[in-house]
Structures are given as C-alpha cells and as structure tokens.
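2024-03-11 09:14:02 INFO queue: dequeued item SH3 domain-containing protein, len=150
2024-03-11 09:14:02 INFO validating residues
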Amino acid sequence: MIRRTLTSGLLAAVTVLALAPTADAAPAVPASHPAASALAPQSPPALLPAPARVRYTPHVNRSMTHRRSTPVLGRVTTHRFPLNVRSGPGYAHRVIGVRHAGRLIAVQCRTYGSWVRGDRQWYRLAHVRGHLRGYVSARYVRVRRTVPWC
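2024-03-11 09:14:37 INFO prediction written
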C-alpha cells in the first residue's frame, strides 16, 4: 500500500511538472505577428535596494536557567544523622561535607543519580556564603516549590 501511494504520488508530480508551462518556453506566435512583441520576455525590473537586515536576538528567559534562578529552600529530614553532601549525584562520589538534621539548605536544581530508597533524584546545592556546592539525595530533603532541572 505504501509503494502504491508513493508511486501514484510520484506519477502525479511528474504529470504536473510536465503539463505546467515553463518560463523558458518560446511563445507560439511567429515573430512577424504584431502580438509577438507583447509576448516577448521582458527585461527584469530594476532591483530595489535590500532593506537593512535586522539582527534577531532570541529572547532567553533567564529565570528558567539554573544558574540565574533563585535557590529553593529545603529542609534536611534525616533523623539524628547528618546528611552527606557529595561531589556528584550518587554514592560513587566522595563526601565533601555534611548538613545537619532540620537545617535549611539552598537547592539550585535537580538531576538524576544513584537510587536512594526508591528515589533517583538528587539536588544540587547553591553556593551560599562560603558553603561548598555539592549534591544531596532528594529523599532526605523536603522542598515547598518545584525545583528546576539542571
């Protein structure tokens, strides 16, 4: 069925192109006929100067990028144990710091990483007042707003 559709479509395109008048075709009127001068190809009109090109600058919504967005506050929900801050989103990355239970942290964006108790999302911490930037498991942080993706 597809072959039949393609074949019929190709045949229709060839037929249209074969029947369509072309600009290169000479008029069917002999040159001695008075109407021949009216049917002769005209010289192209004088070209107008091109308008000045306007440079298009696409609008970028800076509030949607993780580098420009304001951090989302989240609360560490571990019980009596500090939350490890890692250098990357997963257990394979080294621990670069800790955040204590109940503490507010600034979350910049989220990404996927190692599984932690059924959750693969990790939050990237924002660099705030001397604290290191790192990753924490989203399983142990509660946020009130949606965190943008990295």
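2024-03-11 09:14:37 INFO annotate: The helical segments are 2-19, 36-39.
2024-03-11 09:14:38 INFO item closed
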